[in-house]
Records
---
Amino acid sequence: MPKQRATKRRTAKGSGLPIASDRTRSRLLEAAGEMFAELGFHHATVRQICDRAGANIASVNYHFGDKTGLYTEVVRQSMRAARFDAVRAALDQHASSEEILRAVVKARLESLWGQDLPDWHFRILIHEISKPTLAMNQVVAEAIQPVYARLREVISKMLGLPADHEKTRLCAHSIIGQIMFYAFARPVITRLWPEMKMTASQLDRIANHIADFSLAYIRTAGAEHGKGKLPSEARKRR
Amino acid sequence: MPKQRATKRRTAKGSGLPIASDRTRSRLLEAAGEMFAELGFHHATVRQICDRAGANIASVNYHFGDKTGLYTEVVRQSMRAARFDAVRAALDQHASSEEILRAVVKARLESLWGQDLPDWHFRILIHEISKPTLAMNQVVAEAIQPVYARLREVISKMLGLPADHEKTRLCAHSIIGQIMFYAFARPVITRLWPEMKMTASQLDRIANHIADFSLAYIRTAGAEHGKGKLPSEARKRR
DNA sequence: TACATATTCAAACGATTGTTTTAAATTCGC
DNA sequence: GCGAATTTAAAACAATCGTTTGAATATGTA
């Protein structure tokens, strides 16, 4: 009766017993990560994953219970990935708010188009955003929510408004949206702008543009709210 | 031998023969549009579609050949949908560039969150962008490319730069990205900002924010590049 | 070595998918 | 109204999915 031993096995592992080869387990995780990042949860098949990992079909059942168990483990692993820490490091570095913002934008963009793969962690997050699974709550709580809050603090400082103010949130969305566009609309962009080659310098120009584009508004709005000036930006709005 | 009569039937239709009830065909198209918009191409099943349309399973084969035939027909129909015309109308209206931009942003956002469904045409485009199918080329050529080009012209006028200049393109991407963020990240937004209710006025505030956010940069950049020209055409308006 | 456990393997299972088949019902020109 | 074409209906087909089975093998321990 060796059915669904995944959790039981983990407890045995925790009890201090020496473990046999975790090679298949780790190979399974790596292969699953690449496949999930490339195809998403539903389109990636366990047979493909096991083939790529050189493991048997039943191994995913044995080690992770079922496909969703494997996926959630991949997601959990992705949350602690280096790239996210890079973004957090950029957010927490000791520098001016504007420089922090520029660094964050650059880090996020590089984790998207940078050819220094495998960085499928962020791509999994992309799939999770466009087609959420049950792991969504965990992803939001562990990876998105902290960065979102920290980004709002940085913007809040520049705007002179509280971090949970609507304008602060909308500015955060504007910045994130500009970045995510290059994640979601990748196939469209290559068709709309075929002569563009995503080199390192091109990536740099895009990141700087997004920073400049965003700071243009944040600076003026911050000057208004900070000095208590009359809002010249406030147009005749009904 | 009535197998795969879909194309043959169309030719008979073109030959001037009166057609029997196209009721099932149109009901199939409508049901398929809703299902494809909600679940995407792969996740929507022909059985669900036929159930919703009150038609038999084999009807999709008979009328459209296969599932992809049905999908491409739905896409073709979506291209001529009202909302896209609304955006194009906003782009071609006789007004200042800034007001055109504001109207375009508003039209796009309303086709996303507006509760005046069924407006699944744009949602199909969203799915097509995140997970392209073979219909992608058609979608880009017929729906995205024209709007993209027209939007660049509007921005080009404000920037004082050619429409295919890199900065013009990046500005267009920044604007589109801000809008699309509310399309792709919808489940994330509701988790990150749970107290937000997407009312009509909220939608209006978001649209105006995106316009203000974008115009802040475009105005200053336009003033720089268009030194010889009139700094802003918003002046002459009103 | 001998026993118990952990792990891997090939094969099959049940469910669901898109598609096809075969026949009945409906429609339309004549 | 009749015969041919069109349209619908129920059932089954073949392929693939995730999952399970039961035995074989590897591993660690006494």
---
Amino acid sequence: MSEHDDEKLIGVYPSVPKQKRAQEKRQALLESGRVLFIEKGYEQTNAKEIASHAGVAVGTFYRYFTDKRQLMMSLLEDQIDKLLPPEPNWSFVDPERFFASVMEQHYSQINQIGLHRLLPELLLKDPQLADIIAAARKKVHDRIVSGLKKAQEKGLIWGDLDLDTVAWSIMVLSENIPERLVKSKGQVDYYELSKVICRLVFPPQIFKQ
Amino acid sequence: MSEHDDEKLIGVYPSVPKQKRAQEKRQALLESGRVLFIEKGYEQTNAKEIASHAGVAVGTFYRYFTDKRQLMMSLLEDQIDKLLPPEPNWSFVDPERFFASVMEQHYSQINQIGLHRLLPELLLKDPQLADIIAAARKKVHDRIVSGLKKAQEKGLIWGDLDLDTVAWSIMVLSENIPERLVKSKGQVDYYELSKVICRLVFPPQIFKQ
Amino acid sequence: MSEHDDEKLIGVYPSVPKQKRAQEKRQALLESGRVLFIEKGYEQTNAKEIASHAGVAVGTFYRYFTDKRQLMMSLLEDQIDKLLPPEPNWSFVDPERFFASVMEQHYSQINQIGLHRLLPELLLKDPQLADIIAAARKKVHDRIVSGLKKAQEKGLIWGDLDLDTVAWSIMVLSENIPERLVKSKGQVDYYELSKVICRLVFPPQIFKQ
Amino acid sequence: MSEHDDEKLIGVYPSVPKQKRAQEKRQALLESGRVLFIEKGYEQTNAKEIASHAGVAVGTFYRYFTDKRQLMMSLLEDQIDKLLPPEPNWSFVDPERFFASVMEQHYSQINQIGLHRLLPELLLKDPQLADIIAAARKKVHDRIVSGLKKAQEKGLIWGDLDLDTVAWSIMVLSENIPERLVKSKGQVDYYELSKVICRLVFPPQIFKQ
DNA sequence: CATGAATGAGCTTTCATTCAT
DNA sequence: GATGAATGAAAGCTCATTCAT
């Protein structure tokens, strides 16, 4: 829709192509924010840098976001769904490899986003953000618990461990990959970690079946 | 020499409480820094605040520390030894309770310090600090590994898990206590977590012995 | 002197002001700096004062100059060419009046700038600036020497004095005008000084020719 | 009141040595101030540095001087007499060598003091100091003028130059020695300068007598 | 008297945010 | 809408001066 059409119409709302460009700018700013936050930390990155990295002026930054904080919030909201791990399929042959591949799939995505490194800083800085993050982690946790419950129903897992604690452990371990396991090109060797997690979940006899 | 002794003597001696008092001020600043850093985050706390929280003027802050960063370093150095877990004793009856009490002992101390929450922020902000922290974590890790090895020699632990990964997992799980387990007065219920960690370490038949 | 030269000497500006208004602000800052430096001395003037004298905020000062020192450098460089005296024409009737008018022309300009009063302070304060100033003075000195040499070739000047020392003397005397000779409105009576300088240069018989 | 009286009257305070010591401290502070002012400039030197250079505490500095400015004033007052050049003796054989030796004597002393480099900075900074300095220079100037007048009475000097201007020129030239003439160990070769000054004073025929 | 720790005003510099162009 | 110059609050740090010991 051309600008001319715009004038014919009510003349209040910006038209489609404008919205599209605007959306692109917004996206560019989000992406620049993400990259710089991860590279330098949240507090060490300022609006001007984000704008110039996105190829726009500072003023433009403030057209799309009220401030840096709001951009951060948007980033988290945009990406928060990706934090959810996939629903595991418990009928499998080699649970250790299977788990490793699930983690690989999931955490390669999270690592691409990379925001998780910022969370501790943000938690202290901004209680509202802390709430959003806590909610997201709760979702992840619940998803893991629900997966574990299904396995439990099938009698696949240890009977004596508290599921919440096991789920928490899985989440925490997955979020804290030792440097040692990060290979070249950011590839991570999840296999050893997967074995540890499997130990928490499955009694050894399961593997023999 | 106590201040009381001072008064007994001929008059008012300008004895040596100068250094003592100065050290007290330094300690007060360190403590204020610690408290505020934990409460508000490292970046959100400034020298003026630390000084006034410690009941001194800004200039005094700069008499004892070149800047906020150096205070942080001092805090870390003062406390870094406490991060080392005690050497566990593997001859025991109830490993789960035992482990829980070891963690309780150790982490109640760390939580009193509370600096560990700041580490992720500092890692991004200050590479030099990141090195110090990494070195400290390596020490902790090595200590855990060495404990595990002793247990391994006694044939107490699973044979199929990589000790480094298990040690890492213990460290990470111990550092990330779920809120759920934090009871009133900051007391933490380590028992469930201990059970999880024991599962990583000991095969079930060990418990029957 | 072109901006290109500027950059070579001073370094990189925080941002290169592109717009006309920006240039005007920069000029206003330079002028305010000049006036205040002369009025109160370099050390007694701070960035805030310069900014508010120029009618802008402190932040604006730092948009155009990294600090007070750089502003001073710019001032010096902007004006340093004016320190060079004109090449004298030795074929004349009344050398004393002629010299007086040359000095008048030249030093009225320098006094308008007024920065020369600051130089001694700067020499002690800033070795790099001292070098720039020394280079400028060397230029002036060389110009005088070259003028003297031309006169020497024509046999117009005393044969027994060292030209370097005479040139230095001329420069120093010209830079240090006695208060007594400063009349109202900053007008200076150079005639007596000119006579003194002429005595250093020309033997009396020259005047009779 | 003699020091002896002191003891008779009060008999409590350790009179003699302390006053003496106090004077020594004052002298040490003055000397340290002088050295540091010359080395780094007036504004660049602070009370603490002066004190520690003199081997006393800051507080002690403020016992003897209200502030840095007062120390500077004292320095100037203490040394101002030395700025006065000796009365020249106009009956001589080789005026150029004679003048050179007079300057040598006199300015080696001034250079030992070295404060003259600070004057321009102080003139702008402190009008009251400016007055003191102006008065001192006036004294020097008057002394030179009076010397010139005696020579004039003997018909030894050019008749057509203004004595004030000649005296000023001598003063200014003597105060501004070109680097070139400063030899190793701070020794200055005054001979060439002396020739220049002699040219201002004596007609050539005088030398033949 | 001497000391030097403590003070806090004041200077430099940065940066989130606004606004004239 | 987009721009980036301008703003000024606020942080970092210094140093002349005071004062308890």
